[in-house]
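User: I'm new to structure prediction. If I give you an amino acid sequence, what do you actually give back? Let's try with this one:
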Amino acid sequence: MTEPKPAPPGGRSPQRLTGAESIVKTLEALGVEVIFGIPGGTILPTYDPLYASKIRHVLVRHEQGAGHAATGYAASSGQVGVCMATSGPGATNLITALADANIDSVPVLAITGQVGAQAIGTDAFQEADIVGATMPLTKHSFLVKDAAQIAPAISAAYHIARSGRPGPVLVDITKSAQTESTDWRWPVKMDLPGYKPVTKPHLKQVRQAAQALAEAKRPVILAGGGIVRAGGRAKRDLAKLVDRSGAPVVITLMGVGSLPDSHPANLGMGGMHGSVPAVAALQGADLIVAIGSRFDDRLTGDLTTFAPRAKLVHADIDPAEIGKNIPVDIPIVGDAAQVLAELAELAGAWDAKPDYRHWWDYLNGLRESYPPGYDEPSDGRLAPQYVIERLSALAPQDAIFASGVGQHQMWAQQFLDISGGRQLLNSGGLGTMGYAAPAAMGAQVANPDRQVWAVDGDGCFQMTGHELVTCALNGIGIKVALINNSSLGMVRQWQTLFYGQRYSNTDLHTGDDTAMIPDFVKLADAYGCAALRCAAAEDVDQVIKQAMAINDRPVLIDFQVSRDAQVWPMIAGGASNDTIEYARGLAPAFERDEF
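Assistant: Good question. You get back a string of structure tokens that encode the predicted 3D arrangement of the chain. For your 595 residues, that looks like this:
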């Protein structure tokens, strides 16, 4: 992460500034390079000095877009993403994105304008208690009514956002504080009593974990999003630990990229739409070493039957996560990078690798019996999985993908070949439809030299697709692979499986045999983007290559895919992971009796 820059000219000598100038000056001193936002009445004083600042401001079309763009910027770069909005509806429009960043541990700084201090509590025009509204959905929220507190509050928020377990922090600043004068100094002294995140793990517990790994017969390393957030060192030490121990790895959705998909020890994702070998590994393990994972319900299924034979080591930087859902045998509080470094070093000192051959024979048998795959659609339309497979094959190896939420999100995880962390961006915890396009926009701003794709659904895209206007006007050349099945696909899949094919309100009429409203090609063209359509498998490669050759504006490809394609494997919501089906009505034979 970027360290705060040296004090600007003037050193510790105070400068007489307005509160608004203090906001901008503080952000500059912290090294902020870009803000995603929209001006409005109560934040307008700050937009005036921002006009002259070196900080780039990206004028989005909706505050939710600003929040997701800041999240995409942060998740793809490791920097703090910054967004800005006015009071009332402007601020509340940020809430979804902040809640999304909170559950997925993304460092975001949100600055909002508030009505004048004297007007608070009077139901003034566009007054909203955004601090109260966001307090349970962010890492912390500040209300600033005194200009002198602006620099300390923003500095503290920036520090909190990126330290410990990363997360969003909101600073709500009254309009009166923005307009009054104050003495601004840099650096400021932060006063955060009680905020002391533990990053260094206790060595005794790490040794216990290493010993358990050495003694286990059927271990699994569960790699969560905390490893991705911890950065490249954590990823390298995970690979070391895997190579030195020989243990298999199961990843979570947020942990994709912590170990390359191509690594022979990577069994794939666990949970509801995980691979059969990954789910079977967790269910049959005698030891799970979980690092940076929340054990959410999509991973565990029915908690009472999850991993019934496993002893659990749980390492997380947030002590509140340890033991929250699953009883833990060896708890470790610490940063994933430091935990993995210690574990890898201890594993390197073993006289010999543990003997997991019997375990690997079983898992490799499952790999051979239940490889990833899909059926060709019976209606003759494009298989969405094929589109994503070809996108993975043709896009640059370092391309960044931001997926929406639903079937296409699961197919993206299954069929994109991801080699690094921060390469597949997701709304994993909140499951926010509308995430992909603005998150891709933020990722493209943070990574101007890399290709960035939004893999989105027709339902998701219609929630925030207007941010393509922002991209077109600001030279942000994202590419959108629209997996258009003319429906709310994952909901339709559940209606197929659990509601007798009663498709209540899931038909979006965006396919080429429907009203086709909107026509995404015409819409993207109106937004100032290049627009392409593809409905035949033989055209998929050509249209992707055509999109990759366009670099002067955003590109959208409307892939017309089958609405009957489904995501498999699958475990029904709340069911035991033992009930996984790799296709409809087809359950794998686990043969765990041998254990």
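You can read the tokens as a compact description of the fold. Here is one thing that stands out. The first helix runs from residue 19 to 30.
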